[in-house]
Known about the structure:
By secondary structure, the chain is an alpha+beta fold. The protein is about 30% helix and about 15% strand. The strands form 6 sheets. The protein has a 4-stranded mixed sheet, with helices on both faces. The chain has a 3-stranded antiparallel sheet with strand order 3-6-7, covered by helices on one side. Arginine (ARG) binds near residues 192 and 200.
Amino acid sequence: MKFHTYEQLAEGCRIGWRNHARCIGRLHWQSLKVLDRRDARTAEEIAQGCVDHLRLATDGGRIRSVMTVFPARRGLRIWNSQLIRYAGYRQPDGSVVGDPANAELTEVAQALGWRGRGGRFDVLPLVIQVPGRSPELFDLPEDAVLEVPISHPDLPWFADLGLRWHAVPAISNMAFELDGVIFPAAPFNGWYVSFEIGARNFSDENRYNQLPEVAQRMGLDTRTSGSLWKDRALIELNQAVIHSFKQAGVKLVDHHVAARQFVTHEERERRQGRVAPADWAWVVPPISGSTAPTFHRSYSAEPVLSPNFHYQPDPWTQPQPARCPFADAA
Length: 330
Ligand code: ARG
């Protein structure tokens, strides 16, 4: 197996970002900061690397793009899909308090002994597995998790919804591949685009599902789709996210800026003699699509270039060592 120098590794990470067809933020690929933690061995050391990552990435709200590379060892996994995830507590009636996207991870953490407070925005512990061992839990220190309370510039009742979101989106369940070497734990982050929070996390029916509540408080007619209550609620939710991050001094871009920057990236790449592989559905914003320049262009996600980032199966669906609370899951 090839062992990369720091320079080779760092450049590989940047090019991996540039190669990834589903990222709209690739204009900034050259600014990625790479932390080399290939020396980490124990789950404690991996957890500490994750905390260091969040502190550097958060930077008081300025948000730096950071990637931390842990050893290329099969079986090493961060079970959390992002370093910061809100618990989703499944209720007896099937509903979920918190983020339904993390209901399984929450059950995993509980089976390992974690006791959540039962709130809508409880930060889950890191669940880290080193090869041949059961996963272990690590609470994130409070100062490593910057959060933004959500309010609206002109709808005073918005703050009463009690919404909040974390400042740093740090994906931690994808594998990074460089020169045939697979790094199964290599978390990376950028900054948020407002729609990720406003038009997906808060709005999707299988996430926080806030559109009915927002529309009702706005006094819209939710009995007929033609009142465009969903659309109007979506816009106010996105406005609230943009306003709140700005007020908190936390970097975030709106969908117009993000799409424009992506087109700038494409043009820059063309001048370098490269094409930017892109997945149309991922570079067109989920709201007001046709106002974005990317909507009017066609893209090809192929070829899948290397280095790159790849999905991998959720660890709790994989065979586990005996003694592990999930040994039967497989
Ligand atoms: N969409 C994900 C979320 O809402 C984050 C994905 C990465 N986003 C980013 N801006 N780097 O948490």
